[in-house]
Specification:
about 625 residues, alpha+beta, 20 strands, flat, Triger factor/SurA peptide-binding fold, 4 domains
């Protein structure tokens, strides 16, 4: 079982954690997932756990950042400001809270050995291919994290996986469904089409001044420019403070000498075991029976220690290590459950000890070898030491600077220059921005709220120094303000008229097109100039875009020819005629495999939605009415 845990740590979860670390620790803080924010200011409550507005804002920002990184230039910031996006993020937090509480109720917890094994597999925490505690701590510090919070994330990831993986892995799709979908996807249709241009109805389009006026009065919100501000601001960043600190070679050497035990490879031990499984929740009789069997095995090995490999293969209930004659390989402290570790690190080579009780059952252990601790050469750990010394100095310097920075911002309410000078940075200016479209760091809830407050706009005084992320303080002041403004009718009349004309044109074309389709279905093709026949699949082309393909494959083909129409992006209306349906004799194996994977994923999503609905039904969920409102 211990071996199985260690093997699992090399699988998908370790890769996921590594991926998250590679993206500059884009993980959101989940140390408060199970405690929530009970101080008020809640966006929602799930059972006994709260979701604070700050937690929701952090998660919205985290998901926005991931979208920005994934989509690059194609990212639209406005998407993250929509109520639908914010609602979806809140829903995901509610689901996680409920699932974690359900895991706790079912007494699903993460073994220490699992966390240690996962940490040991993450390259970001390794020196020379092996886990390094100093590098682990330094890497987390550099990213504003703590080991406790990060390890809590691993534990909760494990709990969520245990809850959800049975549902995900149980999903399957029948062969009949796969065949039917594959046949439909591979199907082709022979088409021709005729276009009704916008000019065909131009003479019937009538937009009067009164129409424009009515639309303006009915949609004033659409013609209102939101309040905007431009600000100047100063940033005090702990990372910048640390980067500016010079560390002497003598200081590095002294630190290495004084902390030799912290660097290098700690003592490693290799051991084998025979496990008689008995879960800690098992009844006393079951555990007593398992202990008695372990005692019998230990007694046998006391007489014949050479039989350890044989008995491990035949009697151990840890299948991973049993196949290796019981061997668990090498490990250091903190990588196994505590009772097991305490026993191993108290033994002598070739000693056999047992039974040792753990949450997994009873172990008979043999110590196979000891690899003494090895001091790391200075060159190998110089980078970690420099980072540590910079961090230590930066912590004190930043704390002093932060206090001075905050005081100067407050004492010089009309200017940020004194605070910038003290921090060794400069005063910068922003572009015009609205409350819902503010870029970082102004999209931080507290900073955005402070800047758009009536007092800040009216007084043009500094905000307080606000921590927008760990180790970063920002103070700002409004320097220009544009109040919300309703654009006058004269300014937007031409826009309104153009839109009304386009809407009226589209409606008239759709009416004419629908009438033409009905006539065609009745056998009247007089006056229709069809294009040449073309056989198409489900891939869009220059001639038939995605909307056209969708329309073509939605046409009922019980009777041929069959007809349908759709509006095109250029404003015209296209009538499609399907003259033949061509079913594929065989389906490409790669396409079939892709379809199978897609169907399984769809089934998994459906099953997970059903699971979440069932779990959430067991908890009282209260979402505040204004939970997803922007600033």
């Amino acid at each position: 079982m211990l071996e199985a845990i260690r093997n699992h740590a090399q699988g998908w979860l370790a890769k996921v954690i590594l991926g998250l670390i590679a993206v500059t620790f884009a993980l959101f803080g989940v140390e408060s997932y199970m405690s929530g924010d009970r101080s008020g200011g809640l966006a929602a409550e799930v059972g006994k756990v709260g979701i604070s507005r700050d937690e929701l804002a952090r998660e919205i920002q985290a998901q926005t950042d991931r979208m920005r990184e994934a989509l690059g230039p194609g990212f639209d910031p406005a998407v993250a400001e929509t109520a639908a996006f914010r609602s979806k993020v809140l829903d995901s937090l509610v689901e996680r809270k409920a699932l974690l509480q359900e895991a706790q109720a079912l007494k699903i917890f993460t073994p220490d050995a699992y966390v240690a094994a996962v940490l040991g597999q993450i390259p970001a925490f390794q020196e020379d291919g092996k886990f390094s505690q100093p590098r682990y701590e330094a890497t987390l510090r550099q990213n504003g994290r703590t080991p406790a919070a990060f390890e809590n994330e691993l534990r909760q990831s494990f709990m969520l996986d245990i809850m959800s993986s049975p549902v995900a892995h149980a999903a399957f799709v029948s062969a009949t469904s796969q065949q039917q979908v594959a046949r439909l996807v591979a199907q082709q249709r022979e088409l021709s089409w005729a276009d009704l241009p916008a000019s065909a109805v131009a003479s019937r389009v009538k937009v009067e001044a009164a129409d424009v006026g009515r639309d303006y009065q009915a949609n004033k919100a659409a013609y209102t420019v939101p309040e905007q501000i431009r600000v100047e601001y100063v940033e005090l960043d702990a990372a910048a403070v640390a980067a500016g600190i010079e560390v002497s070679e003598q200081a590095v050497a002294d630190y290495h000498a004084a902390n030799a035990s912290r660097f290098g490879e700690p003592e490693q031990r290799s051991a084998s075991h025979i496990l008689i499984a008995a879960d800690k929740s098992a009844d006393p009789a079951t555990r007593a029976k398992a202990k008695a069997k372990a005692e019998a095995l230990f007694a046998a090995l006391q007489k014949s220690p050479e039989r350890f490999a044989e008995l491990a293969r035949t009697e151990s209930q840890d299948p991973g290590s049993a196949a290796q004659d019981g061997s668990l390989g090498s490990f250091g402290r903190g990588m196994m459950v505590k009772p097991f570790e305490d026993a191993v690190f108290a033994m002598k080579p070739n000693e056999i000890r047992g039974p040792v009780e753990s949450d997994f059952g009873y172990h008979v252990i043999r110590l196979d070898g000891i690899q003494a601790a090895q001091a790391a050469p200075l060159a190998a750990v110089r980078g970690a030491i420099v980072d540590e010394l910079r961090r230590q100095q930066a912590q004190k310097r930043f704390a002093d600077l932060a206090e001075s920075f905050s005081n100067l911002v407050y004492e010089n309410a009309d200017s940020l220059a004194p605070a910038a000078k003290a921090a060794g940075t400069s005063v910068r200016q922003s572009d015009w921005m609205g409350a819902k479209t503010a870029p970082p760091p102004f999209n931080h809830p507290a900073l955005g709220e402070a800047l758009f407050a009536k007092e800040a706009v009216g007084s043009r005084q500094n905000t307080e120094a606000i921590e927008v992320k760990p180790g970063t303080l920002v103070a700002a002041r409004v320097i220009e303000h544009r109040p919300e403004r309703l654009r006058p009718l004269a300014e937007v009349a031409s826009e309104i008229e153009a839109r009304l004309r386009a809407e009226q044109t589209a409606r008239l074309l759709a009416e004419d097109g629908t009438a033409r389709v009905k006539a065609l279905e009745g056998g009247d093709e007089a006056g229709v100039a069809w294009s040449a026949f073309k056989v198409v699949g489900r891939e869009p082309s220059a001639e038939l875009d995605e909307a056209g393909i969708r329309a073509a494959f939605r046409i009922k083909t019980d009777v041929l020819p069959a007809y349908a129409g759709y509006a095109r992006p250029d404003g015209s209306y296209r009538i499609l005629r399907v003259s033949r349906v061509l079913d594929a004799a065989t389906v490409d194996p790669q396409l079939r495999a892709s379809i199978e994977a897609g169907l399984v994923q769809a089934q998994q999503r459906a099953d997970m939605m059903a699971l979440m609905a069932l779990v959430k039904a067991g908890y009282k969920i209260k979402v505040q009415p204004n939970a997803i409102e922007g600033r």
